[in-house]
Amino acid sequence: MPSEPEIALGRVTPALRHESLFSERAANIKQSAVRDVFDLSLDPSLVSLAGGNPYLQSLPLDKLGAMASELIIEHGMTALQYGGGQGTPELRAQICEVMAEEGILDADPANIVVTTGSQSAQDVACKVFCDPGDTILCEDPTYVGALNTFEAYQARVEPIPTDEHGMIPAELAKRIAELRAAGATIKLLYTIPNFNNPSGITLCAERRPQIMEICREANILVLEDNPYGMLRYTGDPILPLRADYPDDVIYMGSFSKILAPGLRIGWALVPEHLQRRFYLASEAVTLCPPTFNQMLISEYLKHHDWRGQIASYRDLYAGRCAGMLDSLAEFMPESVSWTRPEGGFFVWVTLPEGIDTYPLLAKAIDAGVVFIPGAAFSPADTPSNKLRLAFSAISADKIHEGVRRLAPVLREAIEA
Ligand code: PMP
Q1: Which residues neighbour 26 within 8 Å (Cβ) at sequence distance 6 or greater?
Q2: How far is the CA of 227 from the centre of ligand 1 (A)?
Q3: Which residues are the signal sequence here (predicted)?
Q4: CA-to-CA distance for 409 and 403, rounded, in angstroms?
């Protein structure tokens, strides 16, 4: 509160007056480290290996433009109107077809809630399940946007150790027991089983039922976040957790990586017994997901070879992923290692123990390249000897140049 002398001196700015009005929750809302670095991606003198943007140049823009214009001219009264809070029935039915591609064959459109990107599905899940102080388990490392959401809801976030096959079931079981013994209320396990952001790692098939059984036994609901699942470049597809555990998983999907993130359309497939609360909480935030965008996606799915489009994205990103891995092999010092993703957008690079990659970012920018320091992907920004490189948005040539610029910065830190 401003003091009386301050008021008398007329020094009370609106910012000062309003400071005391913030909720406790607002103190936990922070700017994403990825956002900070994102703006640098626009500087043409820098090679950005930071932002995991999808490459949109191969979209059929003429076709989308014609569909958009026809929608407004022929169906404007519906397309520009409010719609149902759960999403249009047509798109929900089509989303079931999209999920069937990944092996979810029993989805009922009645249990789908269309959301403003899958980001808002994460938010709704927290709203429905988390009281301040409740615990959410996640992979170590995990998606920074999810961490920001969980922290904004004042959840305690507990990262579970992972290896090259994903979350380690024994570590999960151990941590649940320890947390419960310490009085924690564990509500959710958030997981990105395919091509994790940031690590690129996939949870292997053997571990999937193990993780699910541990969670079911402990009465922990699983949030399965799968925006990259259809972008597999090598290896055999693995069934989503949701496929075999329909009552225990909220599955989150998105059109952001298989079509366009600017449309901001994602979804949650929610177990029937949870669906109503989830949908009402989502409706309370947005009233309804954007009608026009949903109808445009419906038209696209109806009239365009979307499976072919995804296949062409797969080829494109597979080439860039290979370019990234080759460039790392060419330039990186011997003591540096990295993951070999089978899909998705990211490679996770590990430096020798004890080197914090955060201070290296400024040096990398001086050298003309941008990355995301590993600290961004764990709660409390714990110092990390890792960093994330994205290969989705730029050509293999640029990736090569970016890695070439990055290597001496890392070498200098290692040799210091
Ligand atoms: N989950 C993960 C793992 C992501 O990487 C992203 C976006 N980068 C999202 C969710 C959010 O996606 P959307 O655009 O659907 O909100």
Answers
A1: none
A2: 6
A3: none
A4: 10
Q: Is 88 helix (H, G, I), strand (E, B) or coil?
A: coil
ipTM for the complex shown:
0.99
Contact of 295 with 265, CB cutoff 8 Å: no
Mutate to test the pocket of ligand 1, among 113, 225, 228 (most ligand atoms within 8 A of CB): 225
**Cα–Cα distance between 168 and 161 in angstroms, integer?**
6
**In sequence order, what are the beta bridge partners of 153?**
none
Six-digit token pair at 213? 């059984």
- Where does 139-240 have alpha helices with state H? 144-152, 169-181, 207-217
193 C-alpha to ligand 1 centroid (Å): 13
The residue among 341, 396, 142 whose CA lies nearest residue 231 is 341
> Which among 244, 248, 170 has a CA at the least distance from the CA of 209?
244
CA 183 – ligand 1 centroid, Å: 32
Amino acid identity of residue 335, one-letter, is: S
- The closest-lying atom of ligand 1 relative to the alpha carbon of residue 261 is 14
Intra-chain end-to-end CA distance of the chain, in Å = 48
Report the C-alpha gap between 215 and 203 in whole angstroms: 15
Secondary structure of residue 232 in the 3-state scheme:
strand
The pTM score is 0.95
Q: Do 267 and 99 touch, CB atoms closer than 8 A?
A: no
pLDDT tops 70 at residue 131: yes
Q: pLDDT tens for residues 154-197?
A: 999 999 999 999 999 999 999 999 999 999 999 999 999 999 99
60-97 pLDDT per residue, tens: 999 999 999 999 999 999 999 999 999 999 999 999 99
Out of 41, 95, 143, 285, give the residue to mutate to test ligand 1, the one with the largest number of ligand atoms within 8 Å of its CB: 143
Ligand 1 centroid to 268 CA: how many Å?
13
* Ligand 1 pocket residues where CB is under 6 Å: 52, 117-119, 143, 145, 192, 197, 225, 227, 254, 256, 261, 266
